[in-house]
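Students often ask what a holo structure prediction actually looks like on paper. The answer is less mysterious than it sounds. You provide the chain, you provide the ligand, and the output is a string of discrete structure tokens encoding the 3D arrangement of the protein together with magnesium ion.
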Amino acid sequence: MALRIGVVTFPGSLDDRDAARAVRLAGGEAVALWHKDRTLSGVDAVVLPGGFSYGDYLRCGAISRFAPVMAAVVEGAQGGLPVLGICNGFQILCESGLLPGALTRNDSLHFVCRDQRLRIESVTTAWTSGYTAGQEIVVPLKNGEGGYVADQLALDELEAEGRIVARYLEVNPNGSRRDIAGISNAAGNVVGLMPHPEHAVEPLTGPTTDGLAFFTSVLTRLVRS
Amino acid sequence: MARVVVDVMLKPEILDPQGQAVQGALGRLGFDGVTSVRQGKQFVIDVDGPADETLRGRADEMASTLLANLVIEDYTVRVDD
Amino acid sequence: MARVVVDVMLKPEILDPQGQAVQGALGRLGFDGVTSVRQGKQFVIDVDGPADETLRGRADEMASTLLANLVIEDYTVRVDD
Amino acid sequence: MSVDTVKNATATPEAVQPYAELGLKPDEYARIREILGRRPTSSELAMYSVMWSEHCSYKSSKVHLRQFGEKVPVEAADVLLVGIGENAGVVDVGQGYAVTFKVESHNHPSYVEPYQGAATGVGGIVRDILTMGARPIAVMDPLRFGPADAPDTRRVLPGIVAGIGGYGNCLGLPNIGGELVFDPSYLGNPLVNALCVGVMRHEDIKLARAAGEGNLVVLFGAKTGGDGIGGVSVLASETFDAHGPSKRPSVQVGDPFTEKLLIECCLEIFAADLVVGIQDLGGAGISCATSELASAGTGGMHVTLDRVPLRDASLSPEEILMSESQERMCAIVEPVQLDRFLEICAKWDVTVTVIGEVTAGERLVIEWHGETIVDVPPRTVAHDGPVYERPYSRPTWQDALQADAPTPERLARPATADELRATLLRLVASPNLASKSWVTSQYDKYVQGNTVLAQPEDSGMVRIDEQTGLGIALATDGNGRFAKLDPYNGAKLALAEAYRNVAAGGAKPLAVTNCLNFGSPEDPDVMWQFAEAVRGLADGCLELGVPVTGGNVSFYNQTGETPILPTPVIGVLGVIDDVERRTPMGFGSEGEMILLVGATRDELAGSEWAHTVHGHLGGLPPEVDLGRERQLAEILVGGSRDGMLTAAHDVSDGGLAQTLVEMALRSGRGARVFLPEDLDPFVALFAESAGRAVVVVPRSEELRFTDMCVARYVPVARIGVVDGAGKGAVLDVQGLFSVALGDLEAAAEATLPALFS
Ligand SMILES: Nc1ncnc2c1ncn2[C@@H]1O[C@H](COP(=O)(O)OP(=O)(O)O)[C@@H](O)[C@H]1O
Ligand SMILES: [Mg+2]
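The corresponding structure tokens follow.
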């Protein structure tokens, strides 16, 4: 029986269908979770998809962070459940304290949608074990508030502990400190990523299929454990 | 060295989606009795020179020409030193 | 009926591209002597009941839990009636 | 003050009413009194004035638009499921799918408040599509601005682009294309047109009808506020003087988050089949929704206006009727279905209120706190508005304009190889031809994961069935300079280009939408341009066999007495059985053949070259032969279906030179190009003759492809070979000049950022 990966829909989530498609293409079963759910109905991993939850009106992720389902996600994450936050999902993970730092307005002050080259810096997380260290990939990036910030200490700690999952190459599209595109928690089960691997899973609709390995990684990891 | 503070708010008759979202969230977080929330912008501007009438005038000009969109927004200007 | 005003500002050490853009624009408009511009948010919240200590406490809680992200922002709370 | 009731109106026939301020002419006011047999109440006057405004009633254009219903191609019978008149036309694309699409203008609001004006323009067209029962799947944004370096262009363009992106991105709708054109005539009156396309199953089509006595009238979505009162409708019917609009109503602010919830809420309601009819609230708000639903329905309607949830409690009934608050819908629901309806609204946090019911009578009755304030025959408000036969005549200057052709004697042409090279680089960097990525990178083109082609491709293409690969393609075009030289053929040329752009991607063109942007209909010159453009579009659609499914007219686009270039923006929808077969625009692989399909003539009137290099506009636009366009499309679609093509790109603005540059930059590949001997190199490179495309085919397919062209008597010539990739690659026009891709890219990419960043 296929492994079950939950995809949470918050009011204003946009890439939830895309994330579910990516899960299916990777060989998993996508399970729709609703922001008001109080349990995760036994899924093996969770994706917090991109979008503009609650319009991103206050701060991206600031309101969704209080959704009932997040209590279950936080609890699960602390117990080792693999959680991937993409774009708005990354912002929610930071707001909810599962990941350090915050995401701020792009330094260009514009929303930017582009095919972004990244270097995968850490292959020890639940979501990146399918890549090789230092592998370069190209996936879509689309955000208005994707500038990752944290204080120097936190940044040094992330570097030292190898928790910087991916870095921007060629262009830093949003002013992120140290070109950070994604980070993980200390245990490596929780990953936040600004770019959109779920939009790079089919040759027909994506710039590449480089994003698929995020989803196959977690599935292989789960099979092994 | 003087400091100009400009508060910019949507005009009362204009829809404020951001304020609405915050009001909804406050309700769900159990802060009740909240009857209205409006979200505006605040600009804190440091300027060389004295906090005098001239500055007050220039500050007002900054607000009306650049900081506020008078089609949909009102503003208030404060000057302290 | 009391009114809570919460001002939220990026911490000084956090880059403020919006403030910088405004500063640049002010310069181009011929407003000189501007040494720094920071752009923040202002929330005007109307609440039933008196403007007392309890409200001040709750206002502070609203600000710290929801309105400001303490990782990058500072806030000030004012309560008037 | 007390409200003006029907009783009161009957009792005080002589009361003076401000009909003129509301934009009604004396004869129109007289007709309202005649219809009602008494003076209208102030609420009725408000309703009639907005619904009879140019924007809502099409009173000046109706007599011409009729042609779209009269000159109907036979093909219409097979493809049209819902025709003109509904919120948007619906087209059968096969496999049980229906597609609805429409383009609309939000020009004047975007000039007053660029960000919100453009944002609410997107919001409005999306609700039109949603109302048909469809899930919106993509948007496009044809834009026109004044000179790129004009201060007012700098004022409005960034805000308009941010508004379109801000709203569309937040709804999760990929932006798959549009236009960006600069011309002095748009300086005081930029054009913001927005297109939306949606998909549904045949059985899910919804109509704006109030049927079934006792059924409920349900208002849901945002609360009603004072914003945009008389907004679009009055404003869009008002000429701007040099100092901006003479009426400046409060602007509407968009709430894309609420609209996103409204979309998901509606789709769940449709899936549960809970509505008898539905109508979005756009211009003219509740006045429009209630009168149109009732007018198109079987009976009358009774509405209790004081039930409408308000954002501003102080609003008068007249204001509530006229308010153009965004993100609202109005549905007709059977009482037995109401609970389920309310449940779904609650799930999505959507405010919902029963405001009335369908009645047996023939009248729309609106009551306010127990008193009747409106009692009218709905048809007279919604459908039987005034119809004008505006006088029109061929402008006295038209002949002189057409006589002023860009002959070599009139306009100096580049002669030497160096001059040709310099001209190419200058055009590549000109605002109209330069890369649009500064704009398009602010739009999400990936969301929903079905975008197969998007800007800068010729058309936007979206997959609608993941199993079968069925997809649709869309392109919009409209060359105002051609239309000014000859509105009749200019409209045909716009249609031809959009049609060609759809075919270039491999999709079969099926149907047409349009947004006709013109000056004041009270100016006989403008009215002639309009009449000619409509006639040209109707004839063109007949010839190409693609029916017009709907559209929008925007008049009064002028600054003082000076109208904009007549700008018919034409959108063409195509279908492709399997998106795997799509044809991209970038050069294919090393060594593949580059062919030019179609004939090139010395046609430079209205061209980008004449515009950019000489600031000249005169002569006759390129000849348009729609029979040839049809054959070209068959070749492009057939070539894609039979897997002969690795690339195709239509030849239009900037001519062959620009087309080759765009193909090179898109693919990062160079080419060796040899121009046809029998043509002057300048003409070969920069003429804008219609009916042409550049294709790339593998050597093995070249003969098969050329045979297909020859069989249709369509000229085809090998003009080059794909050669070289990456930094070192060059576009080498043999015997003349060569340019490194790096230089082309620098020229193309630098322009817009330098102007607007
Ligand atoms: N405002 C815009 N929004 C989105 N896409 C745009 C816009 N302007 C231009 N584009 C895209 O840029 C590409 C080139 O534009 P254009 O030269 O008008 O194409 P064409 O000449 O084939 O009509 C097309 O894919 C078009 O859809
Ligand atoms: Mg094209």
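Residues D 458, 501, 650, 652 surround magnesium ion (ligand 2) (CB under 6 Å).
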